[in-house]
Amino acid sequence: MNSVPDELLVLFCDLSTTERYRDFPAYGNQRQVFNTDEAFQVLDDDRFDFNVLVVRTDSRQGEAIDFLCRVRSEFPGVVRILISDAMNAQLASRATEVAHRSLKSDYTDDQLVASIQRGVKTEQLLGDPKLRQYILSLGNLPSFPQVLNELNQALAKDTTGAREVSMILEKDPTMVAKILQMVNSSFFNLGNANFYSLKEAVSRLGMRTIKDLVLTEHLFQSLSQNERWRGFSFQQLHERSMIVSQFAAGICRLGGYDNIVQGQARLAGLLHDIGMLVLALGDQEKYHHAMVRAQELGQPVYVVEKLVLGSTHAQTGAYLLETWNLSPEIVHAVLFHHVPVASGDKHFTPLTAVHVADSLLPPLFNAMGCNLGGRLSRDYLREIDMLHALPEWEMMAHDIAYKMK
């Protein structure tokens, strides 16, 4: 069995009313508590520096998720694992937004250890002091919009419906127009269905999908191209990201994955290259040099980004999305979309869909003629036992590419 390194501190918070936690001899540094107040006190104790929080519950899922939200806000570097069964659709959706991984109560020890290791790897990469210092030095990170704060608060309530969401968004008529334009485009492939009111669009597509579109539009509006940057077209990057997003969601749908996974893949696809815009605006001279060097060396841009800047666009984008409290699964997909084999994943995740979509679709080229798309990792597909699906994905990509012409 795999084990968690002894240097990691793991806090177990057991909210179950029946069976108590099993012993985990693989965890050398652990502590167990039985309510959220005690767990928060332990996390807040300066004598300890817990890396991982595991919350187990049987009937108090709402309390557990609210606690994980609080931990995410006040201790953002802590890996959050939720163990629970029988969550309704709303709770399951909320859980994916705050937990690095959700497991059923019949999990194996290996599954829990793998979940911890996966979350720790992501947090260690994004928590690197040099990376943080560089990204913060760029000075142009978009602020989190107030409308999304209001949406998040509304979506946390069981009583929120399409009418309430529409009323929040209608405070920004420009955003409403953008959202209606997107939902009526080929992006959602809804046939002849046209939406003339935001409430109708929310009812059809779902409140969280609309929230994702608001987030994406805000980011691309905040990171608009200036006249000094001519390395690549921001608009073309946005358009390609929409196609990657659509393809990634289609891959998940083809595989029979639920709406939550499809939604995660769709949003990660929309935002997978958002870090390119941050770098192009915040460090133009060096980023232009990185792209020139990539062309000269015949190397992928993300490889040379790391050498020249100390950060890749994937790391930069993932860092921004984590500071905005996006789902850890989306952050994970953005962070590893060029190097999925480094993720340590052993099965299909939204990362798989985004990596495949980005790699198989026609790439965007920068002004130097350098490919900005991904390179397919067959080793990764072999590692997660999905290489057999590649021919069908290639056919899907061919059909999409044909329609793009």
TrEMBL record:
Pfam families hit by this protein: HDOD
Residue ranges occupied by any HDOD domain in the UniProt entry: 141-340
Species of provenance: Nitrincola tibetensis
Entry superkingdom: Bacteria
Entries under SUPFAM superfamilies matching the protein: HD-domain/PDEase-like
Name of the protein this chain belongs to: HDOD domain-containing protein
